[in-house]
Amino acid sequence: MTEAWQQAFARVPELLAAHVQLSFSALLLAMVLCLPLAIWAVRAPRVASVILGFASLIQTIPALALLALFYPVLLGLSALLGGRLSALGFLPALLALTLYALLPILRNAVTGLTGVDPAAKQAADGLGMTAAQKLRLVEAPLAAPTIMAGIRTAAVWTIGAATLSTTVGQASLGDLIFAGLQTQNWTLVLTGCFASAGLAIIVDLLLGLIERAIRERRKIIAWGATAVIGIGLAIALLPMLGARDDVVVIGAKGFSEQFILARLMGARLEEAGYEVRYQDGLGSAVVFQAVAADDIDIYVDYSGTIWTNQMKRTDAVPAGDMLSEIGKWSEATHGVTMLGALGFENTYAFAVRPEDAASKQLKTLDDLARVSSDFAFGTDLEFLERPEWAMVKAAYPIRFKEARSFNPTFMYPALSSGEVDVISAFSSDGRIAANGFVVLEDGKGAVPSYEAMILVASRRSSDDKFIDAIKPLVGAITVENMREANYKVDREANKQSPRQAARWLDERLKDGKDH
Amino acid sequence: MNSTPSASGPAISLNTVSRDYGAIKAVDNVSLEIAAGSFVALVGLSGSGKSTLLKMINRLVDPTAGEVLIADENVEVADPHVLRRRIGYVFQNIGLFPHMTIARNIAIGLELAGEKNGRQERVAELLELVELPQDMASRMPHQLSGGQQQRVGVARALATRPGLMLMDEPFGALDPVTRDSLAGQYKALHEKLGLTTIIVTHDMAEALYLADRILVMEDGQIKADATPAELLSGGVGDEAEALVAIPRAQAAHLIALSKKT
Fold first, then answer.
1. Chain A contact for B109 (CB, 8 A cutoff)
2. Which CATH number is correct for A2-241, 3.40.50.2300, 1.10.3720.10, 2.40.160.30, 3.90.1310.10?
3. Of A94, B41, B117, B158, most Cβ neighbours within 10 A?
């Protein structure tokens, strides 16, 4: 238990720094944007209603959706600029959080500036102040406490919403929460929550102190609190100065197998002398674009996913042909090298409870189609939107009573507890065998092959040391080993971290070679 | 009761000045000559246009027609803020800057003019002029009474040594005792500094006491233009008569009361 906490805490400093860098940059950018806008809005009330309306509208978009929306926008922009822009990571997170921070700052700045005592403004005019002098000497100082309150609200919101930036590949304290949620590692989730909540509370207290000090015109307290914030920022921003050119970034989608394989490759690369960083929790659509754009250096994908999602193919071909075609396609169109298949498949497998399989005589997807109108279907978050589901529906007359999406972690318990009657499980998942679930056969071959394979970004493809470190993994991992490794992370009791499971797998591979 | 010969304040001319707000004529074709060094009171009921007329002199309001000249120079020649720095302006709501000390409030005009030297001495001088203790300099406005605040307002207006003072009901919000003493002290300052002062008030008694020339306004026009003595002797129009009738009746009542006791 204590080891789990230690492991979780060990990741906090780096992620906290990234979290502070991101939130602070977004807040600063929002302030720079808002203050001139607020001044304009106060001078022209019609502008005010338009600007505030726009800011309120943004606020109604869920933060997660706002983050996701910036990815395609930046991708398009990047294409226009010749690929010099990274559509992943810091930039989309920064833009989304900045937009999110606009409303409280803008609203308070407008309220503060319009609320300045008219007598003070008249006196300023009567004394012969220019518009700029009036703003600097009278309006801004008198509106400052209200503006500060808006900045404070925005800061707390931004720090909270920054946890979501994990989904677009920006490191933040959200990494702990998302990874913990995927692997049911509650220590990790709690550590991430406490760290981000603690950061928000401290920042709120300090900004509140500054706000009160400005209101009561107590300069020493205001400057003192500002200094504390400044020192905190300096500590967080310091690592940014250090160059980290040759750090290998390993991408992973949001489930245990991906985390484990990323750590396995990471361990091999560290042995070869590389410094390694992980970008976990990337969406299937995002991760391939990321490797194509050199935002990540390497990751594991599945042949069927590339085949259907990226290549837009719907025809079924033998597994071997599929791999070689994917390799040619990715090299030619994106400069991405398909290094080879790892040796196991992780396909979509329709799984049912053993008692249903026995009583309803379920063996194949045809059998499932027969009873589907009585069955509730549980899937991961993306399956219903994926072409594979369309292919299955085209091949088999399946019509479920209802369909529900789950975080993969909760999909298996949902089947055991009877909340749903069939799930779109992953064939390499250890929880299928552990729960005794029965996998139904895809007799018509509707679901394409899902060989796990290593994809390498173009900037690493000619790095021999890099390739030599990874190459031994090709063809080395059996589905049994993968299932066992996955189960170590996914099981309820005696859970291991992805790093521990990767170490186990690594030792198993090395033993296998020795004997 | 003509202008003081030693006056340093400028003369003011208004030539056919009007100000419309939509269909409403706040000031309606007013022409007026104010001699250098005079103390002029603009008297009238609320909405008679007296405040608007005053604000057209320092361009807080721009006329829709006509022109305003200060010392024979059209006020539109300079930028409004440059013009205003040469004119003292005091108004009912005072408008001290709540986040600045009394000293900085008083010296703000000097700060705007970029005068760095002798600010402290000037503040001390002005505090003495408006009869406030020197230790007020470091206080904040909210620590002062209404009367003290308006003394600071007057000191602030005088800081850059303007020749012209525009006062918009400056003592309107003060209690009668404070108001009387402050009015008396200002009148003495006006004479001592040789200012040209235009004061807006709806209190005829105050106007009769302070000014050497009284203009009665109604519906944006000047209905009477007379010295206090002329006003009191009557025959300057119904509007003026109605306003003079009030202090006269009050005085008569007081005299009657004191005879009874």
1. yes
2. 1.10.3720.10
3. B41
